[in-house]
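Inputs:
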Amino acid sequence: MNMLVERPTADAEPVFLSGRPNHEPARAEPTIRFEAVSKIYPARKGDPAVMALDRVSLDVAPGAVYGIIGRSGAGKSTLVRVINGLEFPTNGRVSIDGVDVASLDGRGLRTLRRRIGMIFQHFNLLSSRTAFANVALPLELAGTPTEQIRTRVAELLDLVGLSDKAGRYPAELSGGQKQRVGIARALATEPKVLLSDEATSALDPETTEQILDLLKHVNALTGVTIVLITHQMSVIKSICDRVAVLEAGRVVEEGPVYGVFAHPRSETTRRLVSSVNGATLPQDLVARLRTDPEGATQTVLRIVFTGVQAGEPILSRLSRSLDIEINIMAGRIDEIGRAPFGNLVIALPAKDEIVAAAVALVRSNGLDIEVLGHVS
Amino acid sequence: MSPELIRLVVESTLETLYMVVAAGLLGTLLGLPLGVFLATSQKGELFAAPLANRVIGTVVNATRSTPFIILVVAIIPFTRLLAGTSIGTTAAIVPLTVAATPFIARIVETAIREVDQGLIEAAKAMGATPLQVVRKVLLPEALPGLTLGLTLTVVSLIGHSAMVGAVGGGGLGDLGIRFGYQRFMPDVMALVVVVLIVLVQAVQSAGEALARRVNKRVRRD
């Protein structure tokens, strides 16, 4: 068993993550449960067999926004597709509200799929249908009466802010607008679960932010459980409650987003995290940095903000109590779930006693600090 | 040119139109489902039936590789069975349909295969039945391609209809051979060719205009 995959226990999570009391009862039955799910694509001529998922176990609580991150080829697409039975596991079990997806017949599967909306990277809108008719499609498929379809679609287009584009064809819409239509379509049958397959990967950063805001809004409004796969850590950061890191089909890390961000345990996670927390140093600083303190005028340190104490005015405290000047070299502070997160690279006078005192002071404030090297 | 000849040209044009329209409609009726099946029955597809796919694919290829004039005479018994006779304009519709059906099937298959796989996946994820996927997604999305393909079919049917004179099918091609060539009346030949050109041009233009209208994939103002 993978020790990283624990049952979600709300009381183990930091205070700042419990900002969702309405939809996340402490120990609710999970909406989606993966039990040692493996998926092997058999070898085809020329290509060896591929293990897309390797004993994945995880629980998604009702109303959660659950992120799955990994590089391309990590098995994310497969993972999201075994939830609505577009693919089936080779081994293990996926259950939705306690029902094994693999046990359903064609009719049962179609009923399930009406309860699970899905949005896609390339939107997958029908080019022959207007925005209105695209949103209406799942309702038509379900045999909803025309009159009802009309009111429901109008409601949905209003929700996503596209009431004025109802008669437009996808070719006449921007990427962000297309994804809004996709979201409206996915919500048409009032699903319990919304699957997002790299839904923002084809969008620019600003549009991405808008789409994520819309998803957040929909989650808060309807309590729909969102499972979102992405290769962008920034997406996880801005919207998810929990995250699973996927590497070569295995869950290498899983937990509340802040915990995973602040204390990455696997190499994959560290690399992903460094893309958003500014852990990578500027090139010119790297070039000047020496390990040998001999003749150096300044020592470079990295302060890592990983917890609730990050609100403390640590720099001014350092400066005042040690009576030194602090030079900020690089850094980035972000907020995840209302707690500051990130790191700051500073330079202090290269004196052993000053550096030691600074390290002690920072640590006593509950922050991490490390010496990176010396510059002259 | 005598009024008698003009009358003959008009009559032959109507015969050609009759054969082409009838064979086009019947061929579509048969070729459309066949094409949908070919496009959706390979391994792992909506109506997966790889063996049937291969068998039907082979029959379609065989029919398409038989020269039309040979097909016409080869299926005379079949024509007689269906039309009651193997001679005449109505009888000629049988071989024309037999030739058009596999042609249309391949055209439908190609047009459907052009539809983005993502749309099929999206429809399945919405809980669509396989038939709903065909009706609500594949056919509407393939419509521009289907329209152009059917235009192509009609044009090639006009060409083929010239050959059914061999079994007394009548039509413009037959008139051209009998009067223009065998009786050496170049004016008749010229007129027949002009009418055919106008006919093909009209069909092509109408088809393209229609395809443009149903194509919503490109942005237009």
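The first strand of chain A starts at residue 32 and ends at 41. Flag for discussion at group meeting.
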